[in-house]
Amino acid sequence: MAKIEVKSEITGKVWKIETKPGDVLAEDDPILILESMKMEIPVMAPTDGKLIEILVAEEDTVEEEQVIAIMDDA
């Protein structure tokens, strides 16, 4: 099993976490939603797999390319 780093594509604030560690996700399932410039931008699972860890909390500010979650591929 390979560890996959899920990164933010934008700078923004974590508005809502949609998943929890242990969840099995399909590619393009939403992991969390960022708020940037009054827009909601979902961060999607890059591949099928199991969510191992979420590295941010709601209300945290994240930077572009920051690792926000870790997954194991299926």
List keywords for this structure.
four-stranded antiparallel β-sheet, 55% strand, 0% helix, elongated, mainly beta, 74 residues, OB fold (Dihydrolipoamide Acetyltransferase, E2P), single chain
Spell out the blueprint of helices and strands.
Blueprint: E1 3-7, E2 12-17, E3 24-25, E4 30-36, E5 39-44, E6 49-54, E7 61-62, E8 67-73
Task: Summarize the entry for a quick read.
The chain has 74 residues and is mainly beta. It has strands at 3-7, 12-17, 24-25, 30-36, 39-44, 49-54, 61-62, 67-73.
Question: How would you characterize the overall build of this protein?
Answer:
The chain has one domain: OB fold (Dihydrolipoamide Acetyltransferase, E2P) (Beta Barrel). About 0% of the residues lie in helices and about 55% in strands. The protein has strands spanning about 5, 10-15, 25, 30-35, 40-45, 50-55, 60, 65-74. Strands 1-8-6-3 form a 4-stranded antiparallel β-sheet, with no helix packed on it. A hairpin with a 2-residue loop joins strand 4 (about 30-35) and strand 5 (about 40-45). The model has no long low-confidence stretch (mean pLDDT about 95).
